[in-house]
Amino acid sequence: DTGVSQNPRHKITKRGQNVTFRCDPISEHNRLYWYRQTLGQGPEFLTYFQNEAQLEKSRLLSDRFSAERPKGSFSTLEIQRTEQGDSAMYLCASSFSGGSGEQFFGPGTRLTVL
Amino acid sequence: QQQVKQSPQSLIVQKGGISIINCAYENTAFDYFPWYQQFPGKGPALLIAIRPDVSEKKEGRFTISFNKSAKQFSLHIMDSQPGDSATYFCAASMGRYDKIIFGKGTRLHILP
């Protein structure tokens, strides 16, 4: 069990570019969550999946954001036409719905939009 | 609208002292209240959690006190150590498997 991994760890992009982040959950965890954390704030929920089904999306997730979990394993979060306000740490977490429900967080991907 | 309010924003405690962080919530549908610890460059990690049918839960040096009628809960860290220096988040959710609503965090610094 290597924990939740996220790639890349850091991403610097110019405004208007598209970016994609990847999250690999703990194996056999069927739930996968995405959160966004800005400096000095707590993480804010974006969306979550149970297996490959996206069950809930926050109003924070504008049309420029899309998340997928095509085979119920890894997930990707894409941001199109990035804006400076998208600069944040994007955190992924996973859990097993048959267990304690504890969400295990990855180290995050820090996005900087210039 | 902030659903979980946390205070203080920052806290400095002497080594060996007691660190106390307070939280309040409004939504009575919350039924799971975890505390997370986050070190710089890392994701949050679950520290301890409580359900509203319990007034107190202790794990080692960490204790959660829960007041359902006041809709408040707090984290006490006994015998605080420099290694406890981190950011702490109180949180709430409607069930263990639901999304987590985080407070804004408390940056704790333990003086050696």
Keywords:
heterodimer, A: 114 residues, mainly beta, 4-stranded antiparallel beta sheet, B: 112 residues, 6-stranded mixed beta sheet, globular
How would you portray this structure in words?
The complex is a heterodimer of chains A (114) and B (112). With 114 residues, chain A is an all-beta fold. Chain A is built from no helices and eleven strands. In chain A, strands 2, 4, 5, 6, 9, 10 and 11 form a seven-stranded mixed β-sheet that branches. In chain A, a hairpin with a 6-residue loop joins strand 4 (31-37) and strand 5 (44-50). Chain A starts with a strand and ends with a strand. Chain B is mostly beta strands and 112 residues long. In chain B, 0% of the residues lie in helices and 53% in strands. Chain B is built from no helices and eleven strands. In chain B, strands 2, 4, 5, 9, 10 and 11 form a six-stranded mixed β-sheet that branches. A five-stranded antiparallel β-sheet of chain B has the order 1-3-8-7-6, with no helix packed on it. Chain B is globular, with a radius of gyration of 13 Å. The interface between A and B is medium-sized, with 26 and 22 residues.
SSE layout and pairing:
The complex is a heterodimer of chains A (114) and B (112).
Chain A: E1 5-7, E2 10-13, E3 19-24, E4 31-37, E5 44-50, E6 53-57, E7 65-68, E8 75-79, E9 88-95, E10 104-105, E11 109-113
Parallel strand pairs in A: 2-11
Antiparallel strand pairs in A: 1-3, 3-8, 4-5, 4-9, 5-6, 7-8, 9-10, 9-11
Chain B: E1 4-7, E2 10-14, E3 19-25, E4 33-38, E5 45-50, E6 56-59, E7 62-67, E8 72-77, E9 86-92, E10 101-102, E11 106-111
Parallel strand pairs in B: 2-11
Antiparallel strand pairs in B: 1-3, 3-8, 4-5, 4-9, 6-7, 7-8, 9-10, 9-11
